[in-house]
Structures are given as structure tokens and as C-alpha cells.
Design goal:
The chain is α+β, with helices and mostly antiparallel strands. It is built from 13 helices and five strands. Belongs to the exbB/tolQ family.
């Protein structure tokens, strides 16, 4: 009995019970109630017979449907057996055809194998080659040719095989040429323009303004490098671009390390310049630079002052009268003011005058000496603090990136270089300034000693 028939029987019983309950509520005596119950039993028996008939009919339908399903299954099994037999026959036919194809191909199979390998290598080379900027979509033809040679239903034509040779030959030929052609290139700000570019073999591509470009294989586009190499390379590139694609001999900076712009060129342009190196020193580097500037200004000031003072002293040596506009004149003025003084007292007076002149002559020499000693120490301070920061970064992020670690150490050593760059010239300037000052002081002592000797000799004669 199906679930549907059970639901029908339950519903009928519920209706009969509901009707009997309703009649019982309306009966006014026991006889009347008994009559109502008898009528209900008759009605229920009639409904049960109707339900049984429905169940019998449904059972017959289910049996008929089952027979139909069995017949359909048998039919599908016959079809499956026929298809399986046909499949086996086709397998034998395909194997026979493949055997015939292999016999007819003969040595061509080995040729197609080498051709497939060569085409695959060519696709890899063409994807990154700068010549693809001038001759795009070469890989599509080679990919289709490889698919054709890998299949068993088609063979490559003579023209297709010759085109593979042509593309390889053209790549070799273009690798040794300097040519100009029209192409679309992207500026660093994202603007795309159409212009003339010059390709130097498979090494570099430059724009008509002499800017170095890079070829992006993933996009198949040319992009101007955001940073350009320094030095004479840009001027050479501009001259080459102006010479209509390389007519005549021109100097040019070629990067031979890669077809997409070159790893050497990338490392060269990513290397910081002097200004960026200076900024790597940070606040300590700025302080060292300021101290060096102060030392340079002091040295220049003292050199100019001592040069003027030396000129006046030289003029005083040629004059017979004391002039108070120079240290020697002021020392000689002491002797002129005291011509009859005894030699011992005159010597003390002259020594006192020289001592008064010495501070102005040796002015700021001590400061230059201090700067020459402090600058390396400041550089060492910057290096130590930079190394501390670098090792803290290694502790947090690890040492998995040697380039980042080397960059931090390089930045830390910049302050040491700055300190030495300040200290070495400062020592040389201090030596020069001190030599000029000592020359003037030596002249003062020499003239003072001569005056005392002449004064003593004059007293002895008198």
C-alpha cells in the first residue's frame, strides 16, 4: 500500500469520527443515538469499500509502471552493449590508423619533435625580447603550430615550418641592428603617447627624447623608466635618437645583462645618488655637514685674514717707521716709544707685545682642531645608532632579505663617511692656517730679537 492510499484512509476515518461526534451531539434519546450509529457504520463500510477499490486500482497502475521501467532498462542495456561493441571496434580502428600514420610519417616524427622543441624555446625568448615591441604577436603563431604538431589529425605545412626558420633568423638579425620605429609608450605619470623609439639590438630601447625605456612582457608595452641613469648616458642616448636610428657612429651606454632593460641598468638607476646618500645619514649626518660647513667658513675667513695680515707685515718689513695697522708695526712701536729703555726691560715689553698679538693671529685655530677631532666621533655615533636600528629591524622582521639588511648597514656607514669627509679637509685646512699664523709669529719673534740685539749693542757702545 502506497503512502498516498494510507493518507486517504486516515482522512476518511477522521471524517467519519467527526460526523458521528456531530450526530451524537444532536441525538435526543438512546434509540435515536443507536440509529445514528447504525447509519454511520453503513456509511463507513461503503467508504471503506470505495477506498479498497482505489487501492486495488493503484496497485495495478504500479505494476504496469514497473513493467514499463523493466522494458526501458532492457532496451538501454541493449543500446549500451551496441555502443560498447562500436567503441571497441573504433579503438581497433584508431590503433590501426595511428600505426599507419606512424609508418607514413617515418623520420618526420623526429623532425616534428625537434620543431616543437625549437618553437617552444622561441616562444620563451620572444616573450622577453625587445624585438617583440617592434614585432608583436609572434608567440601566437608558434603556439598554434605547437598545438597542430602535438595533435594527430593535422600536419604543419611547408610554409609554417619555413616561418619558424624565418622568425629565428629575424631575431638573430634584429639583435645586431639599431632601428627606429613607431610605438606607444607609457610615461611615469601614466600618460600614453605615440612616438618614435630607437631599439639598440636586444639590449636597450630609448625614446626620441633620449630617455631609457623598459619592455614589460606581461603587458607587451614600453614604459619610460621613472629613474634614469646619471652621467653622460642620457646625452649619448639623445644624440643617438637624433641620428635617425643610429646613422653614423655614436657613443651609447649599452646594458648587456638583459633583454628587458637589463639587471645592471636597474641596479645602476636604483643606486642612490650623492644627495640621497647624504639624506641617509639622517640628523647626525646633517649635524656633521653643518659642522663641516662651519669649519670651512672659519678656515676661509682665517686664510683671508692672515693673507691680509701677512701682506701688511711684509710691507712693514720694507718700511723704516712703525705702522700700527699690523702686528709687526705695533711691536716695533713699543721700541720707538721707549728708545732709552734698558735691554732687559725692552725684551719684556716686546715679549708682552708679541703675546698680545698672538691670540688675534691664532684666532679659531683651536676650534678647527676640535672640529677635526669631533667630526669622526660624530660619524661613529651615527653609525652605531644606525646599526642599532638595523639590528632591531632584523630582530622584528628577520634576516630573510639580505638586500634590505645591506641597505640599512650602508645607510649607517654614511655618517662615518661624512665624518671623515669633514675631518680630513679640516685637518689640512688647520695645517695651512696654522702655518700662515706661525709664519707671522716667527717674523714677530725674529724682529723682536733683532731689535733687542741692536739695542743692547748700542748701549754697549755708548
Amino acid at each position: 500500500m502506497s503512502i498516498k492510499m494510507i493518507k486517504v484512509a486516515v482522512a476518511g476515518a477522521l471524517l467519519a469520527f467527526t460526523a458521528t461526534a456531530t450526530v451524537a451531539q444532536e441525538a435526543k434519546s438512546l434509540d435515536e443515538l443507536l440509529e445514528f450509529v447504525k447509519q454511520g457504520q453503513i456509511t463507513e463500510a461503503r467508504e471503506n469499500r470505495s477506498r479498497e477499490q482505489a487501492f486495488t486500482n493503484a496497485k495495478a497502475d504500479q505494476k504496469r509502471l514497473l513493467e514499463q521501467a523493466k522494458a526501458e532498462r532492457a532496451r538501454q542495456e541493449r543500446i549500451s552493449a551496441e555502443l560498447e561493441k562500436l567503441f571497441e571496434e573504433n579503438e581497433l580502428l584508431v590503433a590501426d590508423k595511428q600505426k599507419q600514420l606512424k609508418e607514413r610519417l617515418g623520420t618526420l616524427a623526429e623532425l616534428f619533435g625537434h620543431l616543437t622543441s625549437t618553437a617552444g624555446d622561441a616562444i620563451t625568448n620572444f616573450e622577453t625580447s625587445l624585438t617583440s615591441a617592434q614585432f608583436p604577436n609572434r608567440g601566437e603563431f608558434l603556439t598554434q603550430l605547437i598545438e597542430k604538431m602535438s595533435g594527430s589529425d593535422q600536419l604543419p605545412s611547408i610554409e609554417e615550418i619555413e616561418r619558424v626558420w624565418f622568425e629565428l633568423q629575424r631575431e638573430m638579425t634584429e639583435s645586431g641592428r639599431v632601428v627606429a620605429f613607431e610605438a606607444e609608450l607609457a610615461k611615469p605619470n601614466g600618460d600614453k603617447i605615440q612616438g618614435t623609439v630607437v631599439r639598440i639590438g636586444t639590449f636597450n630601447i630609448i625614446s626620441e627624447e633620449g630617455r631609457y625605456l623598459q619592455y614589460v612582457p606581461e603587458k607587451g608595452t614600453l614604459e619610460e623608466l621613472s629613474r634614469q641613469p646619471s652621467g653622460p648616458y642620457l646625452s649619448w642616448a639623445a644624440k643617438l635618437a637624433a641620428s635617425a636610428g643610429g646613422e653614423g657612429l655614436q657613443k651609447f651606454g649599452v646594458d648587456p645583462t638583459g633583454p628587458t632593460g637589463g639587471s645592471y641598468l636597474a641596479a645602476l638607476i636604483n643606486s642612490p645618488n650623492l644627495e640621497e646618500r647624504w639624506h641617509q645619514g639622517g640628523y647626525v649626518g646633517y649635524a656633521i655637514t653643518a659642522v663641516g660647513a662651519v669649519a670651512f667658513l672659519i678656515a676661509i675667513w682665517r686664510l683671508l685674514a692672515l693673507a691680509m695680515m701677512s701682506s701688511r707685515v711684509t710691507s712693514q718689513l720694507k718700511s723704516s717707521t712703525a705702522n700700527t695697522n699690523n702686528p709687526l708695526g705695533r711691536v716695533l712701536k713699543v721700541h720707538e716709544d721707549n728708545p732709552s729703555m734698558d735691554p732687559e726691560t725692552l725684551e719684556l715689553k716686546l715679549s708682552e707685545a708679541i703675546l698680545k698679538e698672538t691670540p688675534s693671529i691664532e684666532n679659531s685655530l683651536t676650534l678647527l682642531k676640535i672640529i677635526s677631532a669631533v667630526a669622526p666621533l660624530m660619524g661613529l655615533l651615527g653609525t652605531v645608532t644606525g646599526m642599532i636600528i638595523t639590528f632591531q629591524a632584523i630582530t622584528i622582521f628577520g634576516a630573510g632579505d639580505p638586500k634590505a639588511m645591506a641597505g640599512g648597514i650602508s645607510g649607517a656607514l654614511v655618517t662615518t663617511v661624512l665624518g671623515l669627509l669633514v675631518a680630513i679637509p679640516t685637518v689640512l685646512l688647520h695645517t695651512i692656517v696654522n702655518g700662515r699664523a706661525q709664519r707671522i709669529i716667527h717674523i714677530l719673534n725674529e724682529q723682536s730679537t733683532g731689535i733687542i740685539a741692536e739695542h743692547t749693542e748700542a748701549n754697549l757702545r755708548s
